[in-house]
Amino acid sequence: MSSEIRQLQPQELWNKFADLNAVPRPSKKEERVIAFMKDFGKSLNLETIVDEVGNVIIKKPATVGMEDRTTVVLQSHLDMVHQKNNDTNFDFDTQGIAMYVDGDWVKAKGTTLGADNGLGVATIMAILESTDIEHPAIEALFTIDEETGMTGAMGLKGGLLSGGILLNLDTEEDNEIGVGCAGGIDVTATRSYEEEETPEFKIGFTITVKGLQGGHSGMQIHEGLGNANKIMNRVLFDGFENFGLRISEIDGGSLRNAIPRESHAIVAIDAIHEAAFLLEMKQQEAIIKTELKTMEPNLEIVVSKCETPEKIMDLGVQEGLTRAIYAACNGVYRMSADIPDLVETSNNVARVIVKDGNIKIGCLTRSSVESAKWDLVNTLRATFELTGCEVDASGDYPGWTPNMDSPILKVLSKIYKDMNGEEAHVAACHAGLECGILGTNYPEMDMISFGPNIKGAHSPDERAQISSAQKYWKFVLEILKQIPVK
């Protein structure tokens, strides 16, 4: 519980994290957390600004003797990804996150933890509240809606900030210093179709794909995790090829930036094929589980008899849909030729909805190379347009181009080596950070990203490492001490 979390070291960090996690803060519903941050800034008698899109800026003067140092922007995002296990009864709109300690990790009970990016927010809050931490002048920037469109960063106007250095606290490996990230864009395919009356000789089944790990569709896209939408499509395709399976409904995945963990379908087959169909589904489950046994040991494909659906999809549209999802790129499209082990371009088939005569397929495409991003967008567009869908590309945001000559990179690299006796891993990541967007209105700002170890972000397995948070906190304090003069 939160009392247990509040006893962890450093207490100033974990106390603020517990305070923050008591406030519901889903993306695009940040009214309560915006008010919380506004009240927090005013309670400290610090200049507090809420801009026209909802970003919160809190400014704190330098401590004595640090007035000649460059003003630093400390930046994290207020919203969090809301995911829960299917059997967890939890209302993200009204409840705070229920946390507990498991060895060296802080976890949540059946939901995402909100360490992404709550630990960054808590860090900044602790620094703003402190009376004994040395630091230059600080502009704390708390952005909104990072997880579902980065509209906060996009809406931040030039001129609100004067800092020359930005420290983004949204990296999830404590030995990594981030200098670049991928851009992204949402690709959404839609179409309508005619429904048919289900013939009397057919019977209904539900098919559920569950037990997958899920995870971050950028940082974990290369790990070979199962995608529930692709697995479901494979099962439906096999059922049609062998038994004339007809689709009534599909509801797969949830958030665009989360690898789909579950998918649910309602289908109909000829009653005479029931026994053979169930046997085939068992065989398919065994085959797929064998393929994914290393990464997805808890995968289940559950087939249960249900009331026969009244309507099924038009046959031609169904055939086109299943072939299009089969053909749609999912996972790594291309690795970087310039940065070892970096995913350059990828796609996540994140959401599949088929119901009441309408199809909607949502993808998130990422790339650190703008032309490659659009090449994959066009690949997906062609795939879905061939089956009669309209395809929309929206929410485009830029990547962050690495600057290996960054002055603040040199400062952080030296501090990290002095503190830990080894070199930091300087890297670009395949996630969307706000630095690239913020840089459009603040092109002269020197930016860097770092953070503590967080595993399983965007899934109910999300967890934050306690010992890593301690290491990270010391790193932050030393960085503030060593910010160069103006």
From TrEMBL:
Top-level taxonomic group: Bacteria
Keywords attached to this entry: Hydrolase
Membrane-spanning ranges: none
Pfam families (alphabetical): M20_dimer (PF07687), Peptidase_M20 (PF01546)
Segments forming domain Peptidase M20 dimerisation: 208-293
Keyword Amino-acid biosynthesis assigned: no
InterPro entries registered for this protein in UniProt: Peptidase_M20 (IPR002933), Peptidase_M20_dimer (IPR011650), Peptidase_M20C (IPR001160)
Name of this protein: Aminoacyl-histidine dipeptidase
Organism: Thalassobellus suaedae
